[in-house]
Amino acid sequence: MNTVAFPGLGLTFHLDRVALSLGSFQIYWYGVIIALGAVLAVFFCMRTGPRLGIRGNDFLDVLLFALPGGIIGARLYYIIFNPSLYVKAGGGIDWAACVNIHKGGLAIYGGILAGTLIVFLVSRHKKIPFPAMVDLCTFGLLIGQIAGRWGNFVNVEAYGGETDLPWRMGIETAQGYWEVHPTFLYESLWNLLGFFLLLLVLRKGLRKFDGMLFLLYLAWYGFGRGLIEGLAPAGLEAEKPSRPRGAIRKPTQTNQRREAKPGNKIGDHYGNDFGRKGPGGQMQREREERGGCPGPYPRPGGNHCGG
Question: Three-class SS of residue 34?
């Protein structure tokens, strides 16, 4: 169970990554959210395809290969750039960890590269206009990205560095309680805005050539991702960075007493009379109930507590 707070908004969420347990088999919210995003994407693209000259059956034929291929590409890209996470202690590749995506670890760049290549190959084989097909797939991709970032929220990942903005997000890691940029939300909203802008271009007849929407997507997403990436401690694809970049310092006993005041982040973390009333204090009380365990995050030395 993860606890996430938005102290500036007075909100606290207790998030269980498991949506449903069937005996020893568990279904995770991350997968459920990805699946719902995929369903919405297919529904929208099937209805929009005729505007771009793409028949529904042709789109489904491409999707049959592009969807799993894109997921595989996203995972491979993440593994290639984070190899240390998938090597056993004694050496050798940890294949079980490589295929386990319940905790995240999908890099969108790999998904776009693999998906685009597969769309090209299938379109060429079936004599479907590739530029028009990628225009249509762009909408499905954006819907998937919008939904997928909420899977990151449930997993408490893809967050940014420390901030004191009103919409800051309070998270608890092995190093303590931090208030950080909710970068998962930034990208989800950026993609939502991009989705409506591209839809406006299509419906207003501003699309001048096949492939234009896909090129606009690459420019829009690349620009926004570059800005948001600068706020993330280890990249937005990181599963659980251990310490946000620029995170608040760990206080000494002296500055703990000096800085413990209403609404203060340090006071919240240490659960004083004022902090215990806020979201940080809620986390502190839960930690005490667990016997001091900081939650499902790894402790220094690799030990875990709380599952």
Answer: helix
